[in-house]
Amino acid sequence: MTTTPVHRQAGAREGAILLLGSSLTIVGSVMVAPVLPRMIEAFAPTNPQAPLWVPLAITGPALAIALFAPLAGWLADRFGRKRMLMVATLCYALLGALPALLDGLTAIVGVRLLFGLAEAMVMTVCATMIADYWQGEQRLKYVNRQVVTIAVVGAVFFVIGGMLGEHSWRLPFYLYLLPLLLLPFMARILWEPAISRTPPVQTSPQATPALPDRVNMTALLAGYLLVGIGMVMSFVVPVQAPVLLVQLGVTSTTLIGLATGTGLLASLVGALMWPLVRRTLGVRGCNALLLLLGSAGLIGLALAQSYATVLVSIVIHGIGMGMLVPNAMAPVMNALTPTHRGRGMGFFTAFLYLGQFISPLVIGLAASLAGGLTNGILALAGLVALYAAIWGLGAFFRRQPLANASPL
């Protein structure tokens, strides 16, 4: 395995490996989520705190990712993308499967937190290498494909994990060994990108555009803030929709699961729509639209009086959230120099997962201040609508060049 930076032209093979690698991040949570009730049932007789510890085993990796991702990016910049990706994939597989062999709940939680560190490295390096390998519209294409692949693979493994969990809560954890099959392809196909401030010589008008010679901090911070706020809003549906459905009298786990699945499908639709929306409205206009859709979906969810209204609201919300990550990620990639790209994408990953982690806390605080869960969600929706208006004004006063992905 070579770590010498080289100039090459990346193609479909490199793209397939990085897209599959990126999908490991969503698999890390959805594959074992369906067995949460079975794990609580298994550990409750010997551990009265099982209802508290088991959810932490499922969601704990998100906090680990948020805390470790910036360091993961630094390690990728310091020691090489390919090397760190392969080490992280190996750790992901072994740590992911280890809980199937453990009998102690606290040990399982500890391993899952370590597993989150491997997830952080995989996600950060895959996104960084996409930015390293491609430029311009090609980069945007792979950013979009990354989001779509994550959604599709996540949905597939959610079903597979649920099916295996019918037999034993331990079985889904063995699926984490599957990424070991990726390691030979990573070693053979991926290559360490050339990290240089000097762009390749352009030989035609269609050649790769010049790389930035310094970090665009304004664009960077705007992207971080957008994905952080967006993730707070995005996770309202999977976390709070079941509570609101129960309040409406919908207690069927099948119907509640269908609502969550509808949100995943809607986000996939949003991701597929994103290239057209971005080209039509520009990045600022797309930000305004996706935030407005998310806000409208939350308002509909909070005020819904029927299951059908909840589904419609979740679809509206999901379409907006499907456009969030690619529209936030692409400007961040473009704002970074090659030598800072790993660290920059690490902080992007950190803000993404931090938003997911604090979403229930934000809603809880809003609910306590506004007088209930419904009012708390409405308050958040109102603030997001205001944030959308700011992006809308930016789009109106300074229309984004269609081929540029910078948010400013």
Describe the protein in words:
The chain has helices spanning 12-30, 36-43, 50-79, 81-97, 105-133, 136-165, 171-174, 183-189, 217-234, 236-247, 253-303, 307-335, 341-370, 373-397. With 408 residues, it is mostly helical. It has two domains: 12-189, MFS general substrate transporter like domains (Growth Hormone, Chain: A, Up-down Bundle); 217-397, MFS general substrate transporter like domains (Growth Hormone, Chain: A, Up-down Bundle), CATH 1.20.1250.
Q: Fraction of residues in helices?
A: over 70%
Large-scale geometry = globular
- DSSP strand tally: 0
Radius of gyration: 21 Å
What would the CATH topology of the largest domain be? Growth Hormone, Chain: A
Protein name: MFS-type drug efflux transporter P55
Keywords: Membrane, Transmembrane, Transmembrane helix, Transport
InterPro entries: MFS, MFS_dom, MFS_trans_sf, Sugar_transporter_CS
GO molecular function: transmembrane transporter activity
